[in-house]
Write a structure and sequence with these properties.
This protein is mostly helical and about 130 residues long. It contains three helices and no strands. The model has no long low-confidence stretch (mean pLDDT about 90).
Length: about 130
Amino acid sequence: LNRFLVMSGTEDTAGFFFGALGAASALSLANMGASFGTARAGIGVAHLAVLAPAKVMRSIVPVVMAGILGIYGLIVAVIIQGNLSSSYNTKAGYIHLGAGLSAGLSSLAAGLAIGIVGDSSVRAYAKQDRVF
């Protein structure tokens, strides 16, 4: 029973809302970036597998890099969720919302960049060995 917060109606629930929103945005946005980056770089790896099958193992680096972004979002969400307690206030909720948004949006942007650059670099590696 200690793991669940029991509210008597006098607590400020806005802090919990914003804190949970920060955790949810970190997790969801980071995983959106990770999924886009993995899919886009995976398309490049599939193209490479057709042209030069022996080079596939060296070219999965962008796929792994994009997948790690989802783990970053999960870590931030777990840290935010671990700080939710009965003494949680609105200020802490705003801080955690900002932290979740910054982690989520930066992972989303990084996933977009990793996907685009990973796809083009893997395709270039299929045509020229000196790229890697």
